[in-house]
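Lecture notes, unit on protein representations.

Consider one protein chain, 102 amino acids long.
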Amino acid sequence: MPTNSPTTPPTDLPMSPPSVPNRPRRRLKPRHAETVGKSIAPMVGYLGRLRRRLEVNGFDLSERLYQVAERAHEALFELNVLLHYDACEREPPTEQAADWVI
């Protein structure tokens, strides 16, 4: 079993919960989705600017720092989009049809 230090994330946990077929998607209440979305929007912008700064300053795109910043930006961006749809009480597009998925 892998050991984890307090500074590194656990490696033995799944990255996402298992999906359950035919289970309806639970939604946040619109006001909660809007509140959370407004809270993370500045972080999405910051991570996007961080990625751009790393690129402009010549960081190798294969370096771990850049890759982690890129994954964080993509994850928060996708979360923000899903929260937007919950706030509007609409279904988000499927991943196959979504052109907003990075």
